[in-house]
């Protein structure tokens, strides 16, 4: 039975649960961002932030071959400036370089909405509520969970205890989960929290 939940591509969905390690790159080396490896230390994804891309609020997820998989940017403009939330849009990129909106993420930015959950909408719209995924917990403390609109956990983040610092952490993804999508969400959370993808 196929239980895959593709957002970016079915290619990134695994039939078993997967643990990926995330290692931040120093901002002075290659402009920041982070590297994602499997438990055998093989590179799976590379995330570039504004240090490489040259623009704040832009993120790029590449596969292990350096091919662009997901381009994410923070919406701007007067409407966004007046909004109580920041909105990020994620676009999948095909082999011809064309992009297609696959998700949007909104995070509260004002004291009025403080404590409101970060929610993700998938495109084309398919949510069972007015959102598809919700992020709970604290990214800064490396204790956050991504749930779907039915309440099922799809990914969980934790610290790598034996390393002893925040430069390494892991994400456990349930079977069928789109790994590229989850890493894209981690990239946005990293940027929101002013970590390795920011300038």
From TrEMBL:
Top-level lineage group: Eukaryota
Pfam families: LOR (PF04525)
Coiled-coil regions listed in the entry: none
SUPFAM superfamilies to which the protein is assigned, alphabetical: Tubby C-terminal domain-like
PANTHER family tied to this protein: PROTEIN LURP-ONE-RELATED 6, PTHR31087
Similarity comment: family membership: Belongs to the LOR family.
Name the UniProt record assigns to this protein: Protein LURP-one-related 6
Organism: Leersia perrieri
């Amino acid at each position: 039975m196929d239980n895959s939940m593709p957002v970016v591509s079915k290619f990134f969905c695994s039939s078993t649960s997967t643990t990926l390690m995330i290692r931040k790159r120093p901002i002075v080396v290659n402009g920041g961002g982070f590297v994602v490896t499997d438990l055998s230390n093989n590179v799976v994804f590379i995330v570039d932030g504004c240090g490489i891309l040259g623009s704040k609020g832009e993120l790029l997820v590449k596969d292990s071959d350096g091919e662009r998989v997901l381009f994410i940017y923070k919406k701007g403009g007067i409407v966004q400036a007046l909004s109580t939330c920041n909105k990020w849009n994620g676009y999948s990129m095909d082999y011809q370089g064309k992009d297609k909106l696959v998700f949007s993420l909104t995070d509260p930015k004002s004291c009025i909405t403080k404590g409101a959950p970060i929610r993700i909408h998938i495109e084309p719209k398919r949510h069972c509520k007015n959102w598809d995924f919700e992020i709970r917990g604290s990214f800064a403390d490396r204790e956050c969970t991504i749930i779907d609109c039915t309440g099922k956990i799809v990914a969980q983040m934790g610290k790598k205890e034996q390393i002893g610092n925040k430069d390494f952490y892991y994400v456990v993804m349930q079977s069928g989960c789109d790994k590229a999508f989850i890493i894209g969400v981690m990239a946005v959370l990293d940027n929101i929290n002013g970590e390795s993808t920011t300038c």
